[in-house]
Amino acid sequence: MWTPKFACPECAADLGPRGEACWCTRCGRQFEYRDGMWRFLTPARVAALEPFLAQYRVVRAGDGHRQALPEYYCTLPSVGEDHPQAGEWRVRRETYHHLLRHVLAEAPQSVHVLDVGAGSAWLSHRLAELGHHTVAVDVLDDEADGLGAARYYASQFPIVQADFNALPFLPHQFDVVVFNGSLHYAHDVADALGRAREMLAPGGALVVMDSPMFHSDGDGQAMTAQQARRFQFEYGLATIVPAGAGYLTFPSLETAARTLQMQPAYVPSRGPLAWRMKRRLSRLRLGRAPAAFGLWIAR
């Protein structure tokens, strides 16, 4: 199993050799390997993230994403038609095939992929099965919807609990960095893309999968306001804890790519017909453009 070279997520120093733990000789922090994953979240970052993560678990459970059966994770991104989010997973499966076709098909037989916001690490598992060297990163470590679900997979790859605003890797180790349905949670999207760009080897690609995308901030803000009202009504959340804007815009990504001196492209995922029709009707009902989903690529 290929393992990347680690750096301190707080001061960026090379962490050097490691066993069950590693120490930063520059700032003195210690990071451990526990329950099958490297732990790079400092106590301060855990405390800052916990209010959002508590809310996230409630919403994900209510929406049917937190499962208990190992076979569920092993079949992702495919789910049964009776899954409460079957339409969403149909779109995610389509985007996954866009990744294979438009990014990995053009790459050498085996590439190094950083899966950022990996969730249950289904994407890392799928790509590892295809022979790629993958590393799964997320802040959530539980077995129901986080990195702990990696225990169900036959494939092996490094599991890293870390904040994607403080990636614990030395630069230039990855051919592809994928934000897996996660970049819209970044407090500073341009900064997150810039940090991910540092992880890329020459000629590498930045990829954003299945974040909700709009052409205007107004439509994105309307969507997040509607989501907040739904979370309060359906799940009894008195206060909504935001994490990032909750959406992306095409103009902001274009600006970020230009700043990074990269060329962007976008491949939309259209989903099944019933899903598309429902979204067209919701446009009239909600009074805003529906979010676009798909694969954004910058090289």
Model description:
This protein is of the alpha/beta class. The protein has a single domain, classed as Vaccinia Virus protein VP39 (Rossmann fold), CATH 3.40.50.150. The protein is 36% helix and 19% strand. The chain contains eight helices and twelve strands. The strands form two sheets. A ten-stranded mixed sheet has the order 1-2-3-6-5-4-7-8-12-11, with helices on both faces. Strand 9, helix 6 and strand 10 form a beta-alpha-beta unit. The protein is globular, with a radius of gyration of 19 Å. The model has no long low-confidence stretch (mean pLDDT 92).
Q: Number of helical runs?
A: 8
Helix content: 25-40%
Structure class: alpha/beta
H/E series: EEEHHHEHEEEHEEHEHEHE
The counted number of beta strands is 12
- Placed side by side, the strands forming the largest sheet appear as 1-2-3-6-5-4-7-8-12-11
**How would you state the average pLDDT, rounded?**
92
Distance between the amino and carboxyl termini: 27 Å
> Which spans of ≥5 residues are poorly predicted at pLDDT below 50?
none
Give the DSSP E fraction (strand runs of 2 or more residues). 15-25%
The largest sheet, given as strand count, sense and whether it forms a barrel, is: 10 strands, mixed
Rg on CA atoms, Å: 19 Å
The CATH top-level class label: Alpha Beta
CATH topology: the name is: Rossmann fold
- Classified in CATH, the superfamily is Vaccinia Virus protein VP39
